[in-house]
Amino acid sequence: xxxxxxxxxxxxxxxxxxxxxxxxxxxxxxxxxxxxxxxxxxxxxxxxxxxxxxxxxxxxxxxxxxxxxxxxxxxxxxxxxxxxxxxxxxxxxxxxxxxxxxxxxxxxxxxxxxxxxxxxxxxxxxxxxxxxxxxxxxxxxxxxxxxxxxxxxxxxxxxxxxxxxxxxxxxxxxxxxxxxxxxxxxxxxxxxxxxxxxxxxxxxxxxxxxxxxxxxxxxxxxxxxxxxxxxxxxxxxxxxxxxxxxxxxxxxxxxxxxxxxxxxxxxxxxxxxxxxxxxxxxxxxxxxxxxxxxxxxxxxxxxxxxxxxxxxxxxxxxxxxxxxxxxxxxxxxxxxxxxxxxxxxxxxxxxxxxxxxxxxxxxxxxxxxxxxxxxxxxxxxxxxxxxxxxxxxxxxxxxxxxxxxxxxxxxxxxxxxxxxxxxxxxxxxxxxxxxxxxxxxxxxxxxxxxxxxxxxxxxxxxxxxxxxxxxxxxxxxxxxxxxxxxxxxxxxxxxxxxxxxxxxxxxxxxxxxxxxxxxxxxxxxxxxxxxxxxxxxxxxxxxxxxxxxxxxxxxxxxxxxxxxxxxxxxxxxxxxxxxxxxxxxxxxxxxxxxxxxxxxxxxxxxxxxxxxxxxxxxxxxxx
Length: 623
What we know:
There is one protein chain. By secondary structure, the protein is an alpha/beta fold. Helices cover 24% and strands 31% of the residues. It is built from 11 helices and 51 strands. The strands form 6 sheets. It has a 26-stranded parallel beta sheet that branches. The protein is rod-shaped.
């Protein structure tokens, strides 16, 4: 007796209501052929209208259950497995903990009731174009592939929690609907090959794959994931040996979650759309990616894109990407470690805060040709960058650039290095308090790159800006001292600037002291300076007494380190007054007491300016 005859005999003995549809099914299974129930009219083969199919197209689920459970019946199934086309399966397919060594292939069929494959084992599961209510495949072991694609539709939850798939999981062009719940749950699933939710894949309800382990790519290109106000895609802790592609028409409405994921290649979101306004559009905190991350060329996010604490081996490429989360973080890369470059240029469009706080970027940070930079806040606090490359037309509005603690090794060749331009950049920081570090960092880098004069200007501006910003916080005595340092020697960075001041005081002394001597208000200090005139007997200055030299006197009294011995012999007499004549007619009175007051000012100014010159030359003031 052939397999076909023996299987038909067993089936007829088992089922008293054996029908022509059953005979078609068992005959095909035994011969390794598809059981074809389809209509010649293609429009009648849509499973969405399967409830209207006649009895000739109805296959009862208990036939399938018996075929997979009965030892003798299983032995008569062809190695090609169960293959059915265009049937309506009525009743629950219950293969819980069943072990079958053949595949299930159902094309354009309708499962009117649930499928229970929990903890079972089959060779392959292929439901292309088929419509189901729900599938419980938790703990299922599939030796080859699972195909839920090419028009597959589910109107309930599909579950593969803890399942193992030896090939690929392909849901391309599949429709998964469970509004308000989980459309596909596959926590802890192990897939040796790719997971494909792409090319027209559509989910209405959450897709959850917590801790999944994927041996190939996780490809969601052109997939649509909808779970408004919920999690559209949850892949927390997922491990992907290949790349993850949420790109090329990918669209999510609801949060996409990938925190603590581990990706062996790239994460591509090129031309992907992530919508979760007011929340997190893409949450990938703590993710590890060996390759690059692409948010470029049509990438669009409404809501926060979070990569806080991420580890990225390659570039973070945001060229022409759009990040919108006004008034909040639009792109959050805090504490991230990036082995390549961060590219935010060529129509990069952030509307909200771009946060790189404590990020460590081994390559360059390129922030240039940004679209609508006035709508962005750039937060670089405590970030570390290899090369800084930016341009003026991308700088954010005043108050929206945060840089305290920001460190970078060099500034790119084509970026601004002129001190005036860089000061304009530094002054975009908020002025709620003064932050010296960004000035010192810029000056250090410019100095290292050979721009010593620009570095000096930055350090001088640092002190000027501190006085301007903190003028009401600095004690008055310190404030006046800093102003004196700034005006005289530019806080020690231009010590020779004191020389014109010193020269001015010496020349002023030359004029005033010369006028005083001419007016007769200068007197010798030594009582031995006078002798009696041999003719008149009047007291006159001895010819042996040192002659008054006005230039030497002004220089001697101003510069404390040099003693020309003029101040030891001559002094303005406070008890004398005199006058000088200019142009023969103009009389100018000279007061000895006032001239003495000026002498004191002259001496004090000399001490101060000379000390500042010495301190500036030695670097003491800068320290």
